[in-house]
Specification:
The protein is of the alpha/beta class and about 350 residues long. The protein has helices spanning about 15-30, 75-100, 110-120, 135-140, 145-155, 190-195, 250-255, 265-275, 290-300, 310-315, 320-325, 335-350, and strands at about 5-10, 35-40, 55, 105-110, 125-130, 160, 175-180, 200-205, 225-230, 240-245, 260-265, 280-285, 305. Strand 11, helix 8 (about 265-275) and strand 12 (about 280-285) form a beta-alpha-beta unit. The longest helix is centred in the first third of the chain and has 26 residues, at about 75-100.
Length: about 350
């Protein structure tokens, strides 16, 4: 039975979720043994993979440090990179020993150490990415970290390039696989009835985690608008127009059922928006180089607007919201990347 080792970046949920989608597609056509190194919880992956998984919660890169949800903390990032570099050689050597003779393919999204460890172990490796850390660090002025990442990436056998992509010149060979997103097969109206939404209600999904400092405040109540939030709590003052996210509905189903999503830009949400056609209100972030690429894509999306972080936090964004509510839902785009990436990975397994 083929054995794959998956390494996932220490940078938010998006890398973990999309890697899970690809591996689920691969596992649907091939019997596999899967080992995962990721700092996040296994529950972010499709439950159907549980019996095949060995999950190790461990960081395999430094990523970037954030000050809240909307700003890069450059000083903390530099500190994290210095600490990671002290441990890098030990980590790579330990992973090479773990991989040698025990794994047929390494898949990385996209910690540089995964590809160096695979090369030392004599195992082929494939990257899955829409940006790479050498490019991010170079854009942030972290020259040494960028060069370290570039050298490691050059050892990968192939890059599966997600669209839209930042420049990733460190990878010698690449194949574009399109947009990666999740699409619900449910009927929108029956899903809305299941969730208790009225026929005339406009439902706004506030796609922000409940942890950390507040990112938004809600506008004054309107008769026809309700808001779905991660945790109602005391912050929203017992408002009747605020509902807590249901626990038994997938994110793809939420996007299908709702009329607007309010979110920060990121690859994961971009792919899911493309798959669902939902209009999106994007909050500005500071210091994220990938936002240039992501915003270029959203500029061409028929139903997307941007709101300043200060306006979102003060609750003075009803004008932007009303503009989007008057827009038509977009035609969903093809999101073939998980399937196409799985087909390429299957060919690597023989």
């Amino acid at each position: 039975m083929p054995r794959v080792a998956v390494y996932i970046s220490n940078h938010g949920y998006g890398h973990c979720v999309r890697s899970g989608e690809v591996i689920a597609q691969l596992a649907a056509c091939r019997a596999l043994k899967i080992s995962v190194c990721c700092p996040l919880e296994q529950g972010l992956w499709p439950a159907g993979l549980d019996a095949r998984l060995s999950w190790r919660r461990e960081a395999c890169d430094a990523g970037v440090a954030e000050d809240g949800a909307l700003r890069v903390d450059l000083e903390a990032t530099e500190k994290a990179l210095r600490a990671w570099k002290l441990d890098y050689e030990r980590f790579v050597d330990a992973e090479a020993r773990r991989l040698r003779g025990a794994v047929d393919l390494v898949i990385g999204d996209v910690p540089p150490a995964a590809f160096e460890a695979a090369a030392i172990a004599g195992v082929r490796s494939v990257a899955l990415a829409n940006f790479s850390w050498d490019w991010i660090y170079a854009e942030l002025g972290l020259v040494e970290a960028a060069e370290d990442a570039r050298r490691a990436y050059a050892q990968a056998d192939l890059l599966l390039e997600l669209e839209p992509a930042a420049p990733m010149p460190a990878f010698v060979r690449r194949r574009s696989v399109g947009i990666l997103g999740r699409r619900s097969s449910r009927d929108r109206e029956s899903l809305r009835r299941q969730m208790g939404f009225g026929r005339g209600q406009r439902v706004v999904l506030m796609s922000f985690r409940a942890v950390g400092p507040p990112v938004f405040a809600l506008p004054p109540p309107c008769d026809d608008i309700v808001y779905l939030v991660a945790a109602v709590g005391a912050r929203h003052g017992g408002r009747a127009d605020v509902l807590e996210l249901p626990a038994n509905v997938s994110y793809a189903e939420l996007l299908l059922a709702c009329d607007i999503v309010v979110c920060k830009p990121g690859y994961g949400i971009l792919g899911d928006i493309a798959a669902s056609g939902i209009p999106a209100l994007l909050v500005d972030r500071a210091g994220f180089p990938e936002d240039v690429v992501l915003k270029r894509w959203f500029a061409a999306w028929p139903a997307a607007k941007t709101v300043e972080a200060s306006r979102l936090l003060q609750g003075i964004w009803i004008e932007e919201l009303r503009d989007l509510l008057s827009a038509e839902r977009a035609v969903p785009l093809p999101v073939p990347a998980a399937r196409e990436a799985a087909e390429v990975l299957a060919s690597y397994l023989g």
